[in-house]
Amino acid sequence: MQTKNIMIVGVGGQGSLLASKLLGHLLLTKGYDVKVSEVHGMSQRGGSVVTYVRYGDKVASPIIDKGEADFIVSFEPLEAARWLSYLKKDGQIVTNIHGIDPMPVITGAAEYPENIVDRIKEKGVKTDALDCLEIAQEAGSAKAVNVVLLGRLSHYFDFEESEWMEALEACVPAKFLEMNKKAFEMGAKA
Question: Which CATH number do you get for residue 87?
Fold first, then answer.
């Protein structure tokens, strides 16, 4: 199988590390060679972060170059726009529509761009956008945006829901497991 590339992008504190760990675990259990990168960027809340998940028969490197990502999973729209050049021509974006103000916006030095998702779609990019924050809050915690996004991403894979649940069980602490399972199911059904 040709190597597939998934970028998980967002800001620090949103759970991109858990999302990449969960996805990597699932892909390993399916028998793929998997490389998951470290978080690149500012790890403190508010800084841009990206992780790479690459899988296939044989994966040599964890790094994804421009124009190579099959999927970009974005925790917020500005990050989807920031990393758009990494998406393949026929790639897919799965994004949360709820934005998080970066530091220049917080300090008043810049304004958060309007209609980011619409502008991405106008470029002909396949974009699956939903309000993951609202869904996560309905599931029990605003911190579950990452798992809601993975639930939505699951539509693009031929894995059983039970396999995703097993990955959640392996990666999520027991006290948060049921809430995360609910978040995943709600994201998958959104």
Answer: 3.40.920.10
